[in-house]
Design a protein that fits this description.
The chain is an all-alpha fold. The chain is built from 28 helices and four strands. The chain has a two-stranded parallel ribbon with strand order 1-4. The chain has a two-stranded antiparallel sheet with strand order 2-3. Helix 5 packs antiparallel against helix 13, helix 7 runs antiparallel to helix 15 and helix 21 packs parallel to helix 24. The radius of gyration is 27 Å and the shape is globular.
């Protein structure tokens, strides 16, 4: 082997990929005890949080009006694009780690660490903020007695800290962390109970809305709103008065208002990705994970759609209360006591949302620690409960401290960066993986005869591939537009380059439409020209990717409409990331600096893939995340297929 320079060796270590084989897919130290119903309940509980009780009123009053149902439909379609990408990877690589693992297998170690590190941040802040929201909601039911007591005796007058330490939120996080440490099956039962109560309350809200609702609330005239504005603003004359409540009708703020509402509603569907962290704890994960993700998103959309429709039918959109729309709406129609039913549902929704934030956090930490990128002690598994005990308790303790001391309102936007980055990278990984040459996850059983035959055929295959590579290296436009019918190394490299170009174009398009929107609106020639070039390049790049041959290997679930669906998913996610404030990105850079310190000081030297490469006398080689089939494997493909069909039935996994 030729020696490689230190710089090249360093770069190759950053892009080395996780090797996934049939053996590692079968093995699991965790307890496989979750069913498809458990996954659906986990996804619905995590996604359908307290936002359904608050968000509909806020968006309907400020952005969408009655067309909030369309806003939720657009947001659901955008979320489903990300969900389908997760579903395919859940079918391909049913292991613990979610987007971190998928990125490690496809893109490389550095991007995988960035993804996992940001997922940890998202889950920690999510857990802390939901715990404080639970505490605040419970305090509201008690007439704010808890908050009044702590303000008097434990007030904290420091910038950046909360007004008072939230002991109740700490207790709640530690209680649920203990429950998760006790066993995943018990946690799933608690989650199913709270999710069922939440769904029943939402059904009550929908039925009540359609019974007490008035269709005229979707047909309010602009003239009526102008008169209402004149009265509200104390205008002496109705002439030259512009309605502050929009133009009335179904879309009072126009289609742009509906789209603005959809951007906010998109975050209401965040949370389904926790299903992807259960790969080693669910029975038949290659089917259960895709079904769990798709069904949970469908249930959540129906709930959001129904509640927002009921709310805007019960009460005119301009009268909705932004902080507690449902109790005020029930008061409006004369059903005041129903607010207690809503309060119970809200607490159950917060409980399942909290469990949905705590549940995936230790599993991502466990996956990273098991791969050597985080400290090994975090990968310890309890011999009794078969759960990542150290990761669960340590992450719960960090979240509890944050909920105890900090005012998290300024940090909540940082959750969005981690989630949207993970969505973008998973969509990118699907694009890259589907255009790779023949790949497989299973390894045939070893026999000396097959090994000898494989060795001799591999030598001839290598010489043939070297000849083909020399011929293919002459890149031409003809090869780009009319490639070979089967994927090769050249077509895979082409797709990798085009996907990178696509990401750059999406970033440019997002920045231009966010910060240059005024120039575009004023029809500035340079902005229109640049927009046209970026849009045309985006479309051409997608069409060139579409021309390349796809891998024909079938799995339990595959993303449809490739490459269009993942490409638009990347566009939506990066556009929403660009919308976040500069302060959020500054705070994010500090978190990333801490992560890079850990990775370059510890992770890069203790990486399991790095040690495997050392064992093969190739410490700077770029590992393929998925293994290429050799000629022998192709000959024995029917045999391997049978083994593949049976592998989930004969998994070697920990007994619960």
């Amino acid at each position: 082997m030729l020696p490689c320079g230190p710089a090249l060796s360093f770069v190759r270590c950053l892009v080395r990929k996780k090797n996934v084989s049939g053996e590692s897919l079968e093995d699991s130290k965790l307890c496989r005890c979750l069913s498809t119903v458990d996954l659906i309940a986990l996804g619905v509980g995590s996604t359908l949080g307290a936002g359904v009780y608050v968000l509909a009123g806020e968006v309907a009053k400020s952005n969408s009006g009655p067309s909030i149902v369309v806003s939720f439909l657009i947001a659901a379609l955008a979320s489903v694009m990300a969900g389908l990408c997760y579903a395919e990877f859940g079918a391909r690589v049913p292991k613990t780690g979610s987007a971190y693992l998928y990125t490690y297998v496809t893109v490389g170690e550095l991007w995988a660490f960035i993804t996992g590190w940001n997922l940890i941040l998202s889950y920690v802040i999510g857990t802390s903020s939901v715990a404080r929201a639970w505490s605040g909601t419970f305090d509201e039911l008690l007439g704010k007695q808890i908050g009044h007591f702590f303000r008097n005796y434990f007030k904290m007058n420091y910038s950046g800290l909360a007004e008072y330490p939230d002991f109740f939120a700490v207790f709640l996080i530690l209680l649920l962390s203990g429950l998760l440490s006790f066993g995943v099956k018990e946690s799933a039962w608690v989650n199913k109970i709270f999710t069922a109560i939440n769904i029943l309350v939402l059904l009550f809200v929908m039925i009540s809305g359609f019974v007490k609702g008035d269709a005229d609330n979707w047909k309010i005239s602009e003239e009526y709103l102008i008169n209402l504005t004149a009265v509200t603003e104390n205008c002496s004359s109705y002439e030259n008065v512009t309605s502050i409540y929009g133009s009335g009708g179904f879309m009072p703020y126009g289609f742009t208002g509906t789209l603005a509402g959809a951007a906010t509603c998109f975050y209401a569907f965040v949370g389904f990705d926790c299903i992807a962290t259960t790969g080693e704890e669910v029975k038949n994960p290659q089917k259960a994970i895709p079904i769990g993700i798709v069904v949970s998103l469908l249930v959540c959309f129906m709930a959001y759609f129904g509640v927002s429709a009921a709310l805007t039918l019960m009460m005119p959109y301009y009268l909705l209360d932004e902080k507690s729309p449902l109790p005020v709406a029930f008061e409006y129609v004369g059903w005041g006591p129903a607010k207690y039913v809503v309060a119970v549902g809200s607490l159950c929704a917060l409980s399942t949302s909290l469990l949905g934030s705590i549940f995936p956090m230790p599993r991502v930490i466990y996956a990273m620690a098991k791969d050597g990128l985080l400290f090994k002690c975090l990968a310890q598994i309890s011999s009794k409960t078969k759960t990542p005990l150290v990761a669960t308790l340590s992450s719960g303790a960090v979240a509890a401290i944050m909920a105890f001391l900090f005012d998290l309102k300024a940090l909540v936007d940082m959750m969005s960066i981690g989630t949207l980055l993970a969505y973008s990278l998973v969509a990118t990984c699907v694009l890259i993986l589907r255009y790779q040459p023949s790949l497989t996850y299973e390894q045939p059983k070893y026999s000396p005869e097959k090994a000898a035959l494989a060795a001799s055929e591999r030598e001839s295959a290598v010489s043939e591939s070297q000849i083909n590579m020399i011929q293919e290296n002459h890149f031409s436009l003809q090869a780009l537009i009319n490639p070979s019918s089967l994927p090769t190394e050249q077509t895979a490299t082409t797709v990798n380059f085009l996907v990178g170009l696509l990401a750059c174009l999406v970033c440019g398009l997002s920045v231009l439409t966010t910060y240059g929107i005024n120039f575009i609106a004023n029809l500035e020639p340079w902005s229109i020209g640049l927009l046209a070039v970026l849009v045309a390049s985006f479309i051409v790049t997608i069409l060139l990717i579409q021309r390349q041959p796809q891998n024909q290997q079938k799995v339990a679930f595959m993303v449809p409409l490739l490459p269009f669906l993942p490409s638009f998913s990347i566009l939506v996610n990066i556009y929403l990331m660009v919308q976040l404030s500069g302060d959020t990105w500054i705070r994010f850079s500090f978190w990333m600096a801490l992560g890079f310190l850990i990775y370059f000081a510890y992770g890069i030297r203790h990486s399991l893939e790095g040690h495997r490469s050392d064992g093969d006398d190739d410490s700077c080689s770029e590992n393929s995340g998925l293994q290429e089939k050799n000629p022998v494997e192709e000959v024995n493909e029917p045999e391997n297929a049978n083994e593949s069909d049976q592998f989930l039935a004969h998994e070697r996994t920990s007994e619960c």
